[in-house]
Predict the structure of RidA family protein.
Amino acid sequence: MTRDERFEKLAAEVGFPLNEEIKVGGKYTPVLIDAGIAYIAGQIPRVGDEVRFVGVAGGSISLDDAKRAAGISAIRALALLKNVCGTLDAIVSVPRINVFVRSAPDFTKQSEVADGASDVLSTVLEDAGVHTRTSVGAIQLPKGAVVEVDFCFRVTR
């Protein structure tokens, strides 16, 4: 399977429609390519108009659901980049991702939540999906989402 085929299969499994416009939450561009690096604005687990997994990891949201939310955020980022580049074959590497987890005071598994995004990158991009990352707890995130993830991709055009 190609990267694009793996991506389409994964998006279908979570019910992410690839033919719809990806909504953004403000006056900014969701993708900016500068000197071969594609910067993807923070992505929450929004599918269409619905923010999935609103709540707090370690509270109203389970670890497994928080990981799913991070995975949806990664799917959104890949969809945005595919829309700009035409194919995920344009991705050379993933230098960095940052994962922000809306966390209960005693929740310490932010890294495990981040694995949801890392798993998507690995599945779709294989070796090119290897990346560095930071995962941190947050008191609040946009729209009450349990997770927000931003990405840097090295791309060719």
